[in-house]
Amino acid sequence: MTGQYSAPRLYEIAFDTNRKLEVDFLVHCFERYARRRVRRVLDIACGTGPHLIRLADRGYRMSGLDLSPECIEFLGQRLAAKGHPGELVVGDMTDFRLKQPVDAAICMQDSQGHLLTNAQLVAHLRATARVVRKGGLYVFDRYMASSWTDPARAWSWSKRRGKLIVRASFSALNDVNPVSQVFRERMTLEAVENGSRRLYRQTHLSRMVFPQELRALVELAGGFEFVQWFFGFKPHQVLERTKRPIIMVVVLRKT
After folding, report:
1. Which residues pair with 172 in a beta bridge?
2. Long-range pairs for 226-235: beta carbons < 8 A, 24 or more residues apart
3. Per residue in 30-88, pLDDT tens?
4. pLDDT band at 2 (very low <50, low <70, confident <90, very high)
């Protein structure tokens, strides 16, 4: 029984969902809001590459950053199998470098939530600004709750690939600390194949940042200007006009 990031194949299968809406949204942002042509894109906390692979399939030259060596190795194999070039880096999202700058960066699936303090988030924004060219974009999503009284939320699902069945469960907003805005997330992956069963569990802390707080931290970090924010991956649905949003998607531009 180990953490799921040590089993990237199971993680990739569990989260192998239709990402077309999300990738369409990212491409829309690149084409509408960037003040330069977007060719090179960095996927921060890329994991097994659900967005990175799909953007590479659309012709973007991709780079990936993740703290997990297992995920980076697995993603490298996926890119090679498709014949896509790419720079993959094992590193911390608060302090990293790339061989070449990029025209845009993305950070998906609320991966910024792993940054548990304002200081870490500011360091992350500054590190990202260093690698994005002027006029380029940084697009990311953040999980939101309407209030700290919202109950813990849980999801369960299963995926099959060949003879392998992966059953997943995920819960958020456990053990909420309303002062630090930190809560606990829990993940379980159960793999069943040829009569054998493996179980992977992980629990980690995540932090929520509310919209106006995020705007202030972007200004404090410098390097980016706020462009727009949306509810989910819907270009027509601006955050301010949304009741009880669950996902905030933010577009920043390098100054």
Report:
1. 153
2. 226/250, 226/252, 227/33, 227/137, 227/251, 227/252, 227/253, 228/33, 230/25, 233/21, 233/22, 233/24, 233/25, 233/141, 234/25, 235/25, 235/28, 235/29, 235/32
3. 999 999 999 999 999 999 999 999 999 999 999 999 999 999 999 999 999 999 999 99
4. very low
Signed CA dihedral, 86, 88, 94, 100: sign only:
negative
What does 142-160 look like in DSSP terms, one character per residue? Answer: EE--S-TTSPPEEEEEEEE
DSSP code for 113: G
Coil vs helix vs strand at 4 = helix
Are 41 and 193 in contact, with CB atoms under 8 Å apart? Answer: no
Cβ neighbours for 147, distance < 8 A, ≥ 6 positions apart = none
Note whether 218 and 142 are within 8 A (CB).
no
pTM exceeding the 0.90 threshold for the entire prediction: yes
C-beta of residue 13 within 8 angstroms of C-beta of residue 161? yes
User: Are the C-beta atoms of 138 and 224 separated by less than 8 Å?
Assistant: yes
Confidence of residue 252 (pLDDT cuts 50, 70, 90): very high
Is residue 107 within 8 A of residue 41, CB to CB? The reply is no
Q: Which CATH superfamily is domain 17-145+209-254 in?
A: Vaccinia Virus protein VP39 (3.40.50.150)
Domain borders along the chain are: 17-145+209-254
